[in-house]
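Why does residue order matter? Because the sequence determines the fold. Keep that principle in mind as you read this record.
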Amino acid sequence: MKKDFLSIADFSTDELFGLIELSKEVKKHPDNYRQKLQGKSIATIFEKQSLRTHVTFDVGIYQLGAHAIYLTQGDISLGKRESIYDTGKNLERWVDGVVVRTYAHKTCTDLAAAMKIPVINALTDFEHPCQALGDFLTVHEKKWSFSGKKFVFVGDGNNVCHSLMLFAAKVGMNFVANTPKGYEPDKNVIKSSIVFAKKMGSTVEVINDPKEAVKDADVIYTDVWTSMGQEAEKESRLKIFKNYQVNKKLMSLAKSDAIFMHCLPAHRGEEVTDDVIDSKNSVVFDEAENRLHTQKAVMLTLMSGA
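Structure:
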């Protein structure tokens, strides 16, 4: 039975730790995996702009010995030129897997449901599992353990927040979503995460006060206040989120060795200040690098039985 990578919720604790361990091996011994997907072709569908996701998937596919076929919305008009189902039924006859970066999460799940080949969610409006996997590899490298550690997400309870919350809950890390009122994560994601966390002996909380939220944090993470597709809300969001900026003062309330994380791109001067993102505690470029290694691990797992 084929397996997709659509949501962190679909993976068990053991499977997530397995992906982290495989990512470490791929990172440490890349030559051991160079031809593991030789002869395979992988379609990468991008409806949204991308730097990190696009480059790391293209490079990762090449390094594994496979062939990437890059498809933009201008090429296939996903769901418009023909149905998502028909697109999927065509693609499964030609390629060995599909990576899709799209707006609606349903587009991703519908495409996966139509095909007998693996589908990887490279970002939707509801989740960003590839980002979360790269982030938690980075946390594990810096902190060596998840148990007993506190991860605080500051800002909009968005797709990235959803995947991070689910991942933290599954691996036993305490998680706090710190958002303005009305911008909390999806209620069902919170509910599911609390259930997962209880099984692992950890906690999931939603706190509106930034100072309270970041106290004694091991990890402070933020994202842009205005995501792609929300440009019309930018001015109002700048006012609503102004007290949620991660600056030196807010970081000082966390542990002295707390790391700062951001999925990038960053809007410097808005959600984060230069003195934080460029500080010795910042690991944002380590995160970006790790996207390559973790996505290679996902492709190996789904397409080669690693």
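The two ends are 15 Å apart (CA to CA).
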